């Protein structure tokens, strides 16, 4: 009966939606409000960024007898999350949502509705779906990049370790599948865990196995249908965007920009392509062109605080200070608790020689992130430039305590302290440290 394959595939799609919704809603609570503008706070699978990689290909692997791990469908701006705890929580939210789905799917078995004596295709199909959910959760919780298990621990790893491990993120999932496919002891261990948990939840391996048998019998026609869907879902703009990303990694920047522009020509409101183009122009210090691109992003997503923030930074570099401050203020209006925005707003005011206003902005950054060494340091510079020696030195002490190696040496030659360098209190600071 073809309904079996349809039932399992639709159940899987719904579970993927709930998994990704879990990531998105926790990211929203943690400070990344952009997920709302991107349409991720929904269970509508059409809102996902990559319907092919996030939904269709996993289902195709499922139909071919593999495990359909959810593809990364939501883009989280981790810079906007308020702390490492929130970053870990965002990664944990997806597997947690999948666990909830798994438990809900076992309710009919716990109530005794689904017993071997009850002859109906839905119960073995549901048992097989539960088995897939358990397998998915177990795999997702492994501490291997780019899986969610790694995402949970990543914020707590040293930065150098993160950089090294992230280099393997695009290969991690394929290495894992190769190990499970070719190394039989690992494969057997994994499925033993899966069946043990399944049995604990009241799902007999025999019933789940029968569901898999029924599913495989009816899956061939759906495989052909999904291949057709893959073709229909093919988006040329995504192809150009992906080409741009590869060219960028190869440092072929002009060709990358041309590819992003080709994607934008097909889909003028393709915000990811605009972002990629804008950030690359920014990286190349082509600030006026980058400014145009960020302003286009703002037209598409007016509540995108990060775009307003980078626009402000670029305007500051172009010495258009009043417009830069207005852009920072708009970012703050959208999302007040962004320490980075307050910090760079203060730096712009400092360049503008509005030192008292800069100090007030540095204070806001420090209020949000108390151990912000650069904010403490720049605040000390402003006090020194105002001639407030004692406060400058006390503030500088705080900065050096947070980052002694770098900031102690920097302060020794920083021109901001030239006016107080011969002051005995300043000299005592170095003897004290």
TrEMBL record:
It comes from the Bacteria. SMART domains: TPR. Its cofactor is Zn(2+). Its main location: membrane. The keyword Zinc applies. It is a multi-pass membrane protein. TPR repeats lie at residues 237-270, 271-304, 305-338, 339-372, 373-406. One of its GO terms (molecular function) is metal ion binding. The chain crosses the membrane at residues 51-76, 88-109, 121-142, 171-191, 211-233. One of its GO terms (cellular component) is plasma membrane. One of its GO terms (biological process) is proteolysis. Keywords: Cell membrane, Hydrolase, Membrane, Metal-binding, Metalloprotease, Protease, TPR repeat, Transmembrane, Transmembrane helix, Zinc. It is found in: Cell membrane. Belongs to the peptidase M50B family. This is Zn-dependent protease. It comes from Allocoleopsis franciscana PCC 7113.
């Amino acid at each position: 009966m073809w309904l079996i394959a349809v039932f399992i595939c639709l159940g899987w799609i719904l579970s993927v939606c709930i998994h990704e919704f879990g990531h998105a809603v926790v990211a929203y609570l943690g400070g990344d409000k952009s997920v709302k503008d991107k349409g991720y706070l929904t269970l509508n699978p059409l809102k996902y960024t990559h319907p092919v990689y996030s939904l269709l290909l996993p289902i195709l692997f499922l139909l071919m007898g593999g495990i359909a791990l959810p593809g990364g469908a939501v883009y989280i701006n981790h810079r906007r999350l308020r702390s490492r705890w929130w970053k870990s929580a965002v990664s944990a939210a997806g597997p947690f949502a999948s666990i909830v789905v798994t438990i809900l799917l076992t309710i009919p078995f716990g109530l005794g509705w689904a017993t071997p004596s009850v002859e109906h295709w839905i119960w073995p199909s549901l048992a097989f779906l539960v088995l897939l959910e358990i397998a998915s959760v177990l795999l997702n919780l492994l501490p291997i990049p780019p899986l969610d298990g790694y995402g949970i621990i990543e914020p707590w790893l040293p930065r150098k370790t993160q950089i090294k491990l992230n280099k393997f993120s695009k290969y991690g999932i394929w290495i894992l599948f190769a190990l499970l496919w070719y190394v039989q002891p690992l494969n057997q261990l994994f499925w033993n865990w899966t069946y043990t948990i399944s049995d604990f939840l009241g799902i007999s391996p025999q019933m789940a196995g029968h569901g898999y048998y029924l599913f495989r019998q009816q899956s061939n026609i759906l495989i052909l249908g999904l291949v057709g869907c893959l073709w229909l879902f093919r988006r040329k703009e995504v192809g150009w965007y992906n080409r741009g990303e590869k060219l960028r990694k190869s440092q072929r920047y002009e060709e990358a920009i041309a590819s992003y522009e080709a994607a934008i020509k097909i889909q003028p409101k393709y915000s990811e392509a605009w972002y990629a183009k804008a950030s690359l122009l920014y990286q190349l210090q082509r600030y006026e062109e980058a400014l145009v691109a960020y302003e286009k992003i703002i037209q598409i997503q007016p509540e995108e605080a990060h775009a307003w923030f980078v626009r402000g930074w670029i305007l500051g570099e172009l010495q258009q200070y009043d417009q830069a401050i207005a852009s920072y203020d708009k970012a703050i209006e959208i999302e007040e608790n962004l320490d980075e925005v307050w910090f760079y707003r203060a730096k712009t005011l400092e360049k503008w020689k509005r030192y008292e206003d800069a100090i007030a902005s540095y204070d806001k950054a420090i209020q949000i992130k108390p151990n912000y060494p650069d904010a403490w340091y720049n605040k000390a510079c402003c006090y020194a430039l105002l001639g407030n020696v004692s406060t400058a030195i006390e503030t500088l002490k705080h900065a050096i305590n947070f980052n002694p190696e770098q900031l102690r040496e920097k302060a020794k030659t920083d021109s901001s302290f030239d006016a107080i360098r011969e002051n005995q209190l300043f000299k005592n600071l170095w003897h004290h440290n």
